[in-house]
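Might you be able to check the backbone structure tokens below? Thank you kindly.
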Amino acid sequence: MKTKIIFTSALLLIAVSLCFTSCKKQDRKPKNANAATDNAAADNAFAGIWKQISIVADSSSTIKSMATTLSGCATGTITPWDLTTWPKTVVLNFGTVNCLGSDYVNRRGIVTAVFSGPYADSNTVITVTTTNYYHNDYKIEGTQIITNKGHISSGHLLYNVVVNDAHITNTSGGVSTWSTNQNRVWYAGESTALNIFDDVYMISGNASGISVDGEAYNIVTNTDLRVNVGCHWIVSGQFTLTLASYPTYPIVFDYGTGACDGNATATLDGTTYNISMY
């Protein structure tokens, strides 16, 4: 399976900060970006875990060797090591000190994935857990369940990704919780196994959590987020972030109509702010 780039955007923090600090009225409005910060950290970490797992998943039928793919950062085992027996357990051990991967993420700890069947088979379920696992010094605790839903009516492969009540401990010891239910459609590039740069993913779903300062929030995708592997940024799509304490002030993020330009907008209380993600 070609390496996947999944919807994450730590740069949305810039957008949220712009919105919060630009509010001029004195009524009750959001005052910080902790919820957006914590959501981005969690989303990025769990997407990165799936990326590492998918590196050793082979869309043809089995699981491939990880010897040439994990940038020297992990040792791994596959049990049982054959072409016919399922389920299989894949263990990636990144060691006890940070190791910088090819995606510029420091990792340490252990990721375990149990495959009920081959990655590309309909109804295959991959259950991913962590043990003392750190992503850029954030401790990541939780279970990610990835289900192959088969090819949808458009002919594209669909994966459902669920994380429930994950706990993320930041570098200052603050703990946030996070849950998500996303559908990820492999929209283009499935047939060109040797070229990852033509891959396109369409992502929809929702996320929720409680930030380190106790602020509950919810995120809903309005229109599918398009991720082109050959582009550094989400190129189109829209989602809304709402803080529980400020339900009348949702923030709508829009990535445009498809240009790979690093530009987006954030709309709060009727005012739209331009965002550059460079």
